[in-house]
Hints:
Largest sheet: 3 strands, antiparallel
CATH architecture: Orthogonal Bundle
Low-confidence stretches: 1-6
Number of strands: 3
Strand order of the largest sheet: 1-3-2
CATH class: Mainly Alpha
Structural class: alpha+beta
Distance between the termini: 24 Å
Amino acid sequence: MGRMPSQHSPDDRIAILQGTLDLLILKTLVLGQRHGQGIARSIQRQSEEVFFVDHGSLYLALQRLEDKRWISAKWGVSENNRKARFYSLTAKGREQLLEKTSEWQRLTRAMGLILDGGSSREEV
Length: 124
């Protein structure tokens, strides 16, 4: 009685992180097609250097999103004149971006309510 629920399993934590990276990739691709390195740089730059996406995580996420048909990929040549895969957002990916963005906005609003003053309401 009165016990807190047990912690999430490691698999649950990984899923949360994957979902976050997925959303960041989808949002980045709204701006147009990019190769993997360009996606990683864009996320890092737009987050003011807070988020750093390592290559292993990035390419696993890109493969996962491609498997779900949220993004598509084609071979091209990078600005460094190297062969690279360029990723684009699909219609299904745009739908997911809207859905996941809405979920994150609800989550961050709820966290803000708790962190910014939720305790003062309970002190009655």
